[in-house]
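Deviation from plan, reported transparently: adenosine-5'-triphosphate complex.
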Amino acid sequence: MTDEELDRDPLFRYEQPIFADEDLLKITHIPGPERIVGRDQHMQEVADALNPAIFGQEPTHLFVFGKTGTGKTLTSRSVSERVVTEAARGDTRVSTVFVDCGEQNTEASVIKTIARRINDPNRTGFTVPERGLATGDYYTRLWKVLDSCTDVVIIILDEIDMLQDDEVLRKLSRAGENRRISSSNIGIIGISNKIDFPEQLTERVKSSFAHDELVCPPYDANQLREILEHRRDAFQEGVLTDDVIPLTAALAAQEHGDARKAIDILRNAGRLATRNGDDQVTAEHVHAAKEKTEADRFAELIDGAPTQAKLILYALTHLTESHSESEFSTKKIFKAYRTLAETLDVKPLSERRVQEILKEQDFLNVIQSERRGRGRGRGMYATHRLLEDAPIVKRVLQRDSRLSEIGE
Ligand SMILES: Nc1ncnc2c1ncn2[C@@H]1O[C@H](COP(=O)(O)OP(=O)(O)OP(=O)(O)O)[C@@H](O)[C@H]1O
Ligand SMILES: [Mg+2]
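Because the crystal trials were delayed, the predicted structure below was used instead.
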């Protein structure tokens, strides 16, 4: 052993027998175009919308929809980066700003994020402070920043449905028309996993925000397998047993073809093997990793939901625990929800809105909804059931301080 090795703290591990480059499995990693599977058509459509940027002109705004893990963020980021490179060859300055609206959910914070990212104080002669300016002043600086520092800015608003209000969309999309900016252009890519997001926009925005739309469908098992094959080099050679990638792809394809889940399972399987000191990743690691990945993702989805949605889920959880069946009609859930809302002094939503939220949760795979017939000519109704065990759902919901008051 060398001196350096002798000095090492025995509490930690220094060898990486499983992973060669775990970063390749990070959600923020953007694989090269040759590693992106089954999205040629989608990339082309994003490219068509952004194409004018290469010549310094205004891109077409774009909304990208699709379920979780269908490559919405990846295709948007990947094509935007390629636009920047291509434009630079002709001396056009294109900048991209990625805004996670789950974190930057107010008008001021979105504007500030964009201005800070693009600002070059040597050109503008000012800085954009982290706090302290009124929203209007942040806008004023942003317009100056854009005209001085760039020709075109591509603004990716990821999880755009999390924005508190859509005024920022209207102002950004109208900046040129209203002469706020004169020598630069703005292109917006809004990304969402809410199918009905455009319907939620206010009329003012709906009428002013001309855009194209793109839908990313789920992947099939073969595509997922190929996506994982392209990340095989995240692992040391020979570490993955033959069945690991096909099994991971099959498991992720089962509910809906979610590449995020496939990659997360593979990474968690590798981590489990590392922790156990095993020298190979096997099917057993994959099965265990699937459980963990689903629990994590589920918790993340629920944590991010608004309180009203959590209350509705809580009502469904309560019904599930107190009945022998597991499927309940919208009406039944609505009644249980209303009682709960009253107990907590929360203003209850209408039955219609509750129905919409249940539909969203179905789309996010938190619950599963089905339409059923009442019998000949008597119309249809929907039933809903939890996709996870009730006690698990309850535990996650109770992490919200408002819901923890309910007790048993
Ligand atoms: N076609 C693809 N080829 C290769 N990797 C992919 C592909 N699609 C997605 N991935 C990978 O899967 C993961 C999830 O993709 P991405 O973040 O783009 O999904 P998303 O649609 O934005 O999901 P969410 O709605 O949950 O944010 C990322 O690690 C991404 O690199
Ligand atoms: Mg995304």
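The first helix runs from residue 3 to 7. We consider this an acceptable substitute for the interim report.
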